[in-house]
Fold:
Amino acid sequence: MKKFLLYFLGFIFICFLMPAILTKRDKPANVNGTEEGNTASQEGASKNYEYKNYGTIQLLHKKTGEVEEVELDQYLCHVVSAEMPADYELEALKAQAVVARTYTIYKVNHKKHDNADICDDSTCCQAWVSKEDRLARWEESKRESNWQKIEQCVKETKGKIITYQNEPINAFFHANSGGKTELPVNVWGGSDLPYLQVVETAGEEGYSQYASEIEFSNEELINKLKEKYEDIQIDFANGEEIKILEYTDGSRVKTIRFGNHEISGVEARTLFGLKSTNFEIIKEADKIKFTVKGYGHGVGMSQTGSDTMAKQGSNYEEIIHHFYANVEIKEINSL
Structure:
């Protein structure tokens, strides 16, 4: 009986257990596109993106005149950190990264500088700040996390640009629209760009850039205007002498009368140092007050508007499609 039991156990071992032991092996790592391998590949796709063109740019530092060759996305980290607060939502920062990358490529293709692709002057191209200077302006406890956040938004949108009819757009942006964006023709003249339309932006009221005021005495106002118009004359007792005559599509001042001169809202903004052309005038006995909404020219993406949308759950692509009409988000290498 014992022999029979031993033979039986041996039979079981040979027929069933031995094949199972021999066929059991460790699972190969990332062989022929396993699920784990595909996921890792997808997650690393943006990080490992290689630019066929535009991988480096020639950056002009206006103050020194130095031209520096820099990697595109390294340059963008400095731009995004200069152009948008790091405490904005990640999706808003991603939108800013794509907008800044697009603006850069547009500048490369439409060179303004003889010896460089783009400069670091925000009044000419777009803002840029060195990492050292940027870190110094942040609270010490937030420096590392802020910079990592900026790098993340650039890395996770690597290679992405905004196109219209398969061409990079002139991706204008500004701080705060005051509730509604503007057509470029009402700011710079010329002809409109079809992807830059008037769109409404909700939720900007809670930002410091939304509202501002500035006032001048009657004498100060006259002196400001005399910088451009020496023959200026205003009868302050006449209510028609200072009057907004026309508004733009974006509800900004298009034309305004000051005494014997009619000037554009854009010119008035420059002369009086206003934050935008979306203003009203309050006239008192001996002074004039400008109440202003928004900050910037109002064309393209509103940064506070993008942050508001991100807080409401929009991703960077939805933000971009809100502010730029009939565009596509493509990879540079696909152009």
User: Anything to note?
Assistant: Residues 56-171+315-334 form one domain. The two ends are 82 Å apart (CA to CA). DSSP finds eleven helices and 14 strands in the chain. The first strand starts at residue 56 and ends at 61.
